[in-house]
Each structure stands twice: as structure tokens, then as C-alpha cells.
Write a structure and sequence with these properties.
α1 crosses α14. The longest helix is centred in the middle third of the chain and has 22 residues. It is elongated, with a radius of gyration of 22 Å. It folds into two domains: about 140 residues, Rossmann fold (3-Layer(aba) Sandwich), CATH 3.40.50; about 220 residues, Glycerate kinase, domain 2 (Alpha-Beta Complex). The protein is an alpha/beta fold and about 375 residues long. About 35% of the residues lie in helices and about 20% in strands. The protein contains 14 helices and 13 strands. β1, α1 and β2 form a beta-alpha-beta unit. It starts with a strand and ends with a helix.
Length: about 375
């Protein structure tokens, strides 16, 4: 083994992606001291993407206060990699479902306005490249709030402002983009989007995701009709058809808003993050890829980080071997063997509680020992 690439997702609650990678690197050095080892952060566009990419690309976390999903101020944040003029944002940090108490969940009354404020703050900080994860939203406003924060005007029939929440979509009669922030034209928006739902209809955002955000069947029907009308109006005025594009219904219509109003690119999260970290060249020349995550199951095989990087590795380099390590593996984890991972190995060596297994010192020891044993077999 002359060249080994390590790209391990975080072991949530125990080790960050890069910390896990460093532990695995130490194990490699113990078995193959002369090998070239490259460590990359691994994320899939979901929770933890900001921390992983910022740490891996040597950026910084910027705290912020923005308008939350219920229109009250909330503490938020975004990541900046200054030398690349790159901002990394998770929309859930501004309008995530956990920010809304269960008894107050109603997508008619939530907004993405705070996400627009995060984007503006990042633009003020000099960013022009954006990676935005849009999972976990509490909203179904088709980007109405976000776009309003960015300067678009959405007007009622009488010329007054329509509002910024999901329930205000039904009032929009005209769209005025003349006052949108001119700097947006300098920006590139790449959106981590792992759902393929269209904007409206039986598989649209209201029908599929509305109920988990507090929508009753009556609200789902009304919102789907409102979003349909809003999309027709936006497509007519902007000349950019996007409602039927796979992913348009992501995050309550944010996929549509980014693509139609901001020229955003909707990309599977793992693919987008792999591009951002620049791992392709390393994989093309490597003998072995070591990947993994805290829990491995059928969801891993459905495009999460470890399977995504393993599939990329085999496309680029048919001779590469790929092994994965994990805190635990469910019975359906064997599906990963059909998605690029040659073999996977849970790292526990003796019975212990979940709490004990997730203690950092135990995770480090178990991870290092497991990687060392895998490599001894390959020596």
C-alpha cells in the first residue's frame, strides 16, 4: 500500500470528520510507515456540513443573529472560506424544524427570511460562492421569505407587500425584482439537494413534507394550490421554467426559488461536497480508500457520504480497494457492498453501552485498533 486516501464522515457525538481521519491516519502510519496518506473531510450536505467543510477547508464559523422561522430573532451561523470567497450555509440554522415547538408548527406561519439574511451577511463578508444545504426546514414558503430578504418585492393586487410566510403566497399578484441586491448576479449558488420531488402536485412539497411541518390535509390542499399559482406567476415573469425540475420541491419549495430566481444548481449533497473538497485527483492514484461513519445502514447506501465517495473512487480508479469503518452496523448495512464499499467493519471490540462507545477516548482507541487490523490483513 503506497497511497491511502482517508475520508470518514463524523462519528456524531464522538469525533469530527477530520478527527476521525487523523486517528485512521495514525493507524496507517503504524502499519505502512512509508505510505502516502491524504485526509479529506466528508459530508453529505446535511447536518454537520458547515462544520465539516469549514474545518477541512480551513475556514471559520461566523456567528449571526437572523429572523427565525417564527419571525423572532434566533442565533445562527455560517461558514466562510475567505481565500475561495466561499460561504457554507445550512438553511436549518436559520429556519430548521427543531426551532419550532411542536404545538406551533404550521407552515402557513413560518418563513425562510433568515436564510436570506445569512446570504446577505456572507455577501457583505466578500463571499460569492455558496454551498447551501437545504434539508430539515420548518417552512413551505417557496422561498418567499428568503427572496424578500434579498430585495425582491412580492405584491398583493392593491400594490402592498404580501408578507414573508407560507400563508402569504396566496396573496402574491406581482413580482418586482428591480430592487434585488445587485451583488447576487456575481454569486454562484450550489444547493445540496437529495430529494427529487417536483414543486407541487401529489409528490410536491406540500403533500409530501407538509404534514411533518404541521400541515393538516386542508392546509396541504390550500398550500399546494397557492404554490402552483405562485410558480406560474414566477415562471411567466422570469421566463425560467422550474417547477417540474427534480428537487424543486425540496425544503418547502426552496429548490424552486434558488433555481428560478438565483440560477442555483441543485446537486446531490454528497456529490457537491466531494467536489468542494477536491478529492478526485487523490482517488485516481490511490491504492486504498478508508471511509466510514458512526452508524452504517441502508441509508448509507442511498447516497450518504461513505457510499458516495466509494462510488466515486471506483468510477475513477477501478483498481482501488474501499473499506469502511463504523460505530455500529445494522443488519441492512450489507447493501453498501453493492454501492462501492468492498467491506465494512464495526469498530467495537467488547460489550459496552452506547454512552461508553461514544466517549471520545473509546472511539479513538476502537477506531485506531480496527483500522490497524484491516491494514495488517492487506499488508
Amino acid at each position: 500500500m503506497e497511497h491511502i486516501v482517508i475520508a470518514i464522515d463524523s462519528f456524531k457525538g464522538s469525533l469530527s470528520s477530520l478527527a476521525a481521519g487523523q486517528v485512521a491516519s495514525d493507524a496507517v502510519r503504524a502499519v505502512f510507515p512509508q505510505a502516502r496518506v491524504e485526509i479529506f473531510p466528508l459530508a453529505d450536505g446535511g447536518e454537520g456540513t458547515v462544520d465539516t467543510l469549514v474545518e477541512g477547508l480551513q475556514g471559520q464559523i461566523v456567528p449571526a443573529v437572523v429572523t427565525g422561522p417564527l419571525k423572532s430573532p434566533v442565533r445562527s451561523r455560517y461558514g466562510v472560506v475567505a481565500e475561495r470567497k466561499l460561504a457554507v450555509i445550512e438553511m436549518a440554522d436559520a429556519a430548521g424544524l427543531p426551532m419550532v415547538p411542536v404545538e406551533k408548527r404550521n407552515p402557513l406561519q413560518t418563513t425562510t427570511y433568515g436564510l436570506g439574511e445569512l446570504i446577505l451577511q456572507a455577501i457583505d463578508a466578500g463571499c460569492r460562492e455558496f454551498i447551501i444545504g437545504i434539508g430539515g426546514s420548518a417552512t413551505n414558503d417557496c422561498g418567499l421569505g428568503m427572496l424578500t430578504a434579498l430585495g425582491w418585492k412580492f405584491l398583493k393586487g392593491d400594490g402592498t407587500a404580501a408578507g414573508i410566510c407560507g400563508g402569504n403566497l396566496s396573496e402574491v399578484a406581482a413580482i418586482d425584482g428591480s430592487q434585488a441586491d445587485v451583488r447576487l448576479k456575481e454569486c454562484r449558488f450550489r444547493i445540496a439537494c437529495d430529494v427529487t420531488n417536483p414543486l407541487y402536485g401529489p409528490n410536491g412539497c406540500s403533500a409530501i413534507f407538509g404534514p411533518q411541518k404541521g400541515a393538516t390535509p386542508e392546509i396541504v390542499k390550500a398550500m399546494d394550490e397557492s404554490i402552483h399559482r405562485f410558480a406560474d406567476l414566477a415562471e411567466k415573469e422570469l421566463g425560467n421554467v422550474g417547477a417540474a425540475v427534480p428537487g424543486a420541491g425540496a425544503a418547502g419549495g426552496l429548490g424552486f426559488a434558488f433555481r428560478t430566481f438565483l440560477g442555483g444548481e441543485l446537486t446531490p449533497g454528497t456529490e457537491l461536497c466531494l467536489e468542494a473538497i477536491g478529492i478526485r485527483q487523490a482517488l485516481e492514484k490511490a491504492d486504498l480508500l478508508v471511509t466510514g461513519e458512526g452508524r452504517m445502514d441502508r441509508q448509507t447506501a442511498m447516497g450518504k457520504g461513505p457510499a458516495g465517495v466509494a462510488q466515486l473512487a471506483h468510477r475513477l480508479n477501478p483498481k482501488i480497494k474501499t473499506v469502511a469503518v463504523c460505530g455500529c452496523a445494522l443488519p441492512d448495512a450489507e447493501l453498501v457492498n453493492q454501492h462501492g464499499i468492498d467491506a465494512y467493519f464495526p469498530i467495537l471490540h467488547m460489550p459496552m453501552t452506547a454512552e461508553e462507545a461514544m466517549e471520545e477516548k473509546n472511539t479513538r482507541l476502537n477506531l485506531k485498533q480496527t483500522v490497524m487490523q484491516i491494514l495488517r490483513l492487506l499488508k
